[in-house]
Amino acid sequence: MAAPLPRSAAFFDLDKTIIAKSSTLAFSKPFQAGGLISRGAVLRSAYAQFVYVVGGADHDQIEKMRAFMSQLVAGWDVATVREIVADTLHNIVDPLVYDEAVSLIEEHKAIGRDVVIVSTSGTEVVEPIGALLGADIVVASRLEEVDGKYTGNIDYYAYADEKARAVRELAEERGYDLERSFAYSDSVTDLPMLEAVGHPHVVNPDKELRRAAAARGWPILVFTRPVTLRSRVPVKPTLAALAVGSAVAVGGLLWASARRRRLDA
Fold first, then answer.
1. In the chain, at which end, N or C, are there fewer CB atoms within 10 A of the end residue's CB?
2. For the chain, which domains are there?
3. What integer pLDDT is reported at residue 91 of this predicted model?
4. Is 186 an annotated catalytic residue?
5. Which residues contact 166 (CB under 8 A, 6 or more apart)?
């Protein structure tokens, strides 16, 4: 009897890999409706979103977004933020999730591979999306909380080399064979995470990552189709409760048997 294959995982960036925008900035209007931010802040976040999508997520852009969000959330009530995200999750995420990403996640899970989201965005947003989409684990940035409010400081920043370190730590804890594992991202800032696995893929890559992928012979995936999530993921009655505490994952491919054989490699 053949020995069982070692465990493996599929590690996904979230923003512009699974969804088409910044997951955090996408909630700016619900946060305004909840009384957390002003109309001016909504306009500034809309501009930041535009620059992020059009200009790419290089180091300078990520740092500007980090500083903007840290300043913006200082003093926000933690419970209010989580309630707003849970109540508006479907309306915000539905138009943003790539259909190809949902299919890819389903492929990995059907094979028995763990799906892990590794995102620079905050847990308040990433974990609810993860609960909705069925990821096994979420690694995301964490904002500092004092007396139920955000201070504006960051306790844990899941970015660049830290993503790769988190992937290796998870592999050690859960017994993943990284040579048999997969990773997906759009940004050159995630190059360390992509290099940590045996099957890296780039998704809608920025210019620098496209060059790096071409030089290394990595597959380049193009995701273009937004999906109405209700048509792909059944909505459970307890969704609002689940939305504030689990993990996420979404990835995509609608390729058939040839692609499935590659995933089995």
1. N
2. 9-263 (3.40.50.1000)
3. 73
4. no
5. 118, 139, 158
Closest by CA to 124, choosing from 99, 149, 160, is 149
* The overall pTM is greater than 0.90: no
Residues 6+ apart with CB under 8 A from 53: 16, 20, 21, 22
Q: Is the pLDDT of residue 261 over 60?
A: no
List the structure tokens of 44.
Answer: 């500034």
Active-site residue flag, 13 = yes
pLDDT, tens digit (0-9, with 9 covering 90-100), for 188-202: 999 999 999 999 999
CB 145 within 8 A of CB 133: no
The residues, any chain, with a CB within 8 Å of residue 6's CB and separated by 6 or more, are 175, 176, 177, 180
The pLDDT tens digits for 89-107 are 777 766 678 999 999 999 9
The residue annotated as part of the active site, out of 13, 136, 190, 206, is 13
As a whole number of Å, the end-to-end CA separation of the chain is 20
